[in-house]
Write a structure and sequence with these properties.
CATH superfamily: Hotdog Thioesterase
Bound molecules: coenzyme A
CATH architecture: Roll
Strand content: 35-45%
Number of helices: 2
Distance between the termini: 45 Å
Structural class: alpha+beta
Number of domains: 1
Number of strands: 7
CATH topology: Thiol Ester Dehydrase, Chain A
Order of helices and strands: EEHEEEEEH
Radius of gyration: 17 Å
Amino acid sequence: MSERLKKKSTVATSSIMVFPTDTNDYGTMYGGRLIEMMDMVGGICARRFSSHKAVTASIEDMQFNKPINRGDIIELESRIIYTGRTSMVVKTKVTREGYDEDKEVCARAYFVFVAMDSEGKPIEVPILEILTEKEEKNNKIGAEIRKRQALEEKRFEIELNENL
Ligand SMILES: CC(C)(COP(=O)(O)OP(=O)(O)OC[C@H]1O[C@@H](n2cnc3c(N)ncnc32)[C@H](O)[C@@H]1OP(=O)(O)O)[C@@H](O)C(=O)NCCC(=O)NCCS
């Protein structure tokens, strides 16, 4: 059996201008639109790390802590913080910048991506190398998220088959 490769964390970033089509009646950004962008940047990060297609399996601890306004520039930054056998936890942070050029963090979430082979089956990802204290801290958060999910899995299976 071949040994699993070890790999340093990968990142992906993107800067986007917020347009009227991204915002609601109050001129602030739709949460769903922001999640879509976070999913895209996180997916690029997961693909870079795994060298495979990656699908979104879940979104954890999504926080919108500051509104984003029409005309703001937003920066999205994603980083692999934890790996399982075929899954990767990607932390994504969003920072907004208004016309005064001040920056503030406005959203953060942890996305779980699963690497897929050419037949659409989950495939092993490299083992994440932990090199710094910050990476160690993030890795513990990723491990806690996956542990919590494993506990919730049974309840989720039951709920899937019930009416709302
Ligand atoms: C994610 C998916 C590929 C997992 O398939 P599966 O048959 O459960 O595969 P496995 O049981 O082998 O699990 C593979 C990995 O996915 C993880 N996983 C499965 N369901 C999960 C969920 N709901 N949340 C988080 N992780 C999940 C498993 O823990 C496992 O991780 P590990 O290998 O690191 O231990 C499958 O559920 C799927 O295709 N979901 C739809 C994905 C999609 O279309 N996303 C776009 C949004 S619509």
